[in-house]
């Protein structure tokens, strides 16, 4: 079978991503013997749990806030510590571990967690899968559909700007074979899992949290910033809907779009959009902004609308960080797995026309109404998505799972 140059050009971004992931995995496995931390809190207990997560979470007393994953690992360790377990932590890529000493295996997708399913004799550990993404087949279908939608609008494939599931089918298998599954995100995150699994009793949702780093200006001028939009995201620009944000701003010059993040490594995306962004006077690209910096607080004060057209998230921590530290009205997709419909505008379909309509509706609000709803969104996140609540919910889930097993 002959492969045409056009087919090669379409498949090349996917091939690059998969090759890069394979190389990273190989390097991680090569050095994995150095990534098993034993008894991180030095308790010396007989009951032991293995976290297949991020040993780096225990390397510093002050964890960075550029991502929530290190904090999630540390919080899980604290929960097990409070429940009377000694906690070991290993890299997700670690292989060939001896799982016999452990009463519980807890982790996210990776070779270490999956390795605990190897055939063995004797006592089986309790396995808790911590899912930090949407159900695998749902995520893949959603991101593929997003690319098809873009192609229909622009006649171009941007396969390198999607968010494919890492680790192949491991995410899928772990959710199916684990004794319990804790899914990061609000209740909506469970629906694709439950549609694919007839054992709903194994699943629990765990709302995400935000990092409290700034206090919004109580005298924020919503009349001045009513038509200023913030897009705040990272890699997978098509998956996260940056194209919708740029297309809207290019078509509606009376709005201003601020782009925060937006991976520069996605060259095909920027090859198409850079001329559009450069020509538009109402689009400002800020690059990656440290949320603990004055620049982040200034951006939150500059914008009245948060735009997040992502097709698939697990609690969308980026959205929570914006709303928890600033007063903005969120216009977001159902795929973010956040329950903000009472204070924001939830758009069921990630298509340009639906988001355009939603943004124009928000733009027609009076400054007073915009202010009221933006502050309501801020209050809801600040009160309902704290790190303390996240830790208490996780503790309750883990305790319930352990108690349920002990009663059998």
CATH second-level architecture of the largest domain: 3-Layer(aba) Sandwich
Q: Name the structural class.
A: alpha/beta
User: Mean pLDDT, rounded to whole units?
Assistant: 87
Oligomer: single chain
* CATH topology category name of the largest domain: Rossmann fold
Radius of gyration: 22 Å
Number of domains: 2
How many strands in all?
13
The neighbouring-strand order within the major sheet is: 1-3-2-4-5-6-7
The termini sit apart by 56 Å
Helix content range: 40-55%
Q: Could you give the order of the helices and strands?
A: HEEHEEHEHHEHEHEHEHEHEHEEHHH
Major sheet size, sense and barrel closure: 7 strands, mixed
Low confidence ranges: 28-34
Structure description:
The protein has 408 residues and is of the alpha/beta class. It has two domains: 12-134 and 168-209 and 387-406, 3-Layer(aba) Sandwich (Rossmann fold), CATH 3.40.50; 222-384, Rossmann fold (3-Layer(aba) Sandwich). The protein has helices spanning 5-30, 69-82, 111-115, 136-154, 170-177, 190-195, 222-225, 242-251, 267-279, 294-302, 317-325, 352-363, 367-384, 387-406, and strands at residues 36-37, 48-53, 86-91, 104-107, 126-131, 180-184, 203-206, 228-233, 256-261, 283-287, 305-308, 329-333, 345-347. The chain has a seven-stranded mixed sheet, with helices on both faces. It has a six-stranded parallel sheet with strand order 10-9-8-11-12-13, sandwiched between helices. β8, α8 and β9 (256-261) form a beta-alpha-beta unit. It is globular, with a radius of gyration of 22 Å. The termini are far apart.
